[in-house]
Amino acid sequence: MSDTLLSVQGVETYYGNIRALAGVNVEVKKGEIVSLIGANGAGKSTLMMTVCGSPQARTGSVIFDGEDITRLPTHLIARRRIAQSPEGRRIFPRMTVYENLQMGASLDNLKYFNEDVEKIFTLFPRLKERQSQRGGTLSGGEQQMLSIGRALMARPKLLLLDEPSLGLAPLIVKGIFDAIKKLNQTEGLTVFLVEQNAFAALKLSDRAYVMVNGQVTMSGSGKELLANPEVRAAYLEGGRH
Ligand SMILES: Nc1ncnc2c1ncn2[C@@H]1O[C@H](COP(=O)(O)OP(=O)(O)OP(=O)(O)O)[C@@H](O)[C@H]1O
């Protein structure tokens, strides 16, 4: 059996006539943490959204766990257990923390509901303390925890994270990245994350890809890219670390 979980092959994605992805190849193996770094507008979020089926790739293919999901509608992609914490977190502001977690549970997993909520509360004790508080009143870091927690309620095979560190203080980012690492190490969860905070992402990741203008220009282990002079000059020097 192949150890590849996600394979993006020659993908081009358009918004009208604008080509946001220009032939992207990316692979994520089971149990890996892989990150995608790059400047604003490079196409990182578009790649993540293309994996989730909206927008769909115009050419190329997205293979998940051996199945071609390129043309599947988004709800069926979610049923394949790809869960996303999207850019901007998108929690439900008027619902409580607990209700937000309920929204993330899939019908297939209801029998695990209490167990899964407890697991998320153990991972993020702050969410337990605030379980009756409305999502919209949480701090940015707490909202990010909730967004990840809600995605985890789907018992994903692949967790997609779009800019989890955005707008958060370094100590909060560390807490969230430590939690992701712990999930990966204890549960073997596979994670694909998009980050502008290249330093934090590369430190966390087994492997990473660099994206420029809709194309992958470099790839390597987190360590290799951290030491790479081009990466350092473009994404690390004067950065947020
Ligand atoms: N809905 C849209 N309609 C038209 N163009 C879009 C749309 N969404 C994104 N784009 C364009 O596609 C390109 C890639 O955008 P994308 O959001 O994927 O980049 P990104 O690397 O995630 O950037 P950021 O880090 O700023 O979020 C950009 O040129 C952007 O302007």
Helices, strands, pairings?
Blueprint: E1 4-15, E2 18-29, E3 33-38, H1 44-51, E4 59-64, E5 67-68, H2 74-79, E6 82-85, H3 97-104, H4 113-123, H5 125-129, H6 140-152, E7 158-162, H7 170-187, E8 190-195, H8 198-204, E9 207-212, E10 215-221, H9 222-227, H10 229-236
The structure holds adenosine-5'-triphosphate.
Structure characterization notes:
The structure is a single chain. Helices cover 37% and strands 27% of the residues. With 241 residues, it is an alpha/beta fold. It starts with a strand and ends in a 5-residue tail after the last helix. The strands form two sheets. A six-stranded mixed sheet has the order 6-7-8-3-9-10, with helices on both faces. Strands 2-1-4-5 form a four-stranded antiparallel sheet, with helices on one face. α7 links the parallel β7 and β8. The mean pLDDT is 92. It has ten helices and ten strands. The relative contact order is 0.18. It has two domains: 167 residues, Rossmann fold (3-Layer(aba) Sandwich); 68 residues, no CATH class. It is globular, with a radius of gyration of 17 Å. It binds adenosine-5'-triphosphate (ATP). Adenosine-5'-triphosphate binds next to β2 and α1. The site of adenosine-5'-triphosphate has 12 residues, from β2 and α1. Belongs to the ABC transporter superfamily. Pfam families: ABC_tran. Keywords: Amino-acid transport, ATP-binding, Nucleotide-binding, Transport.
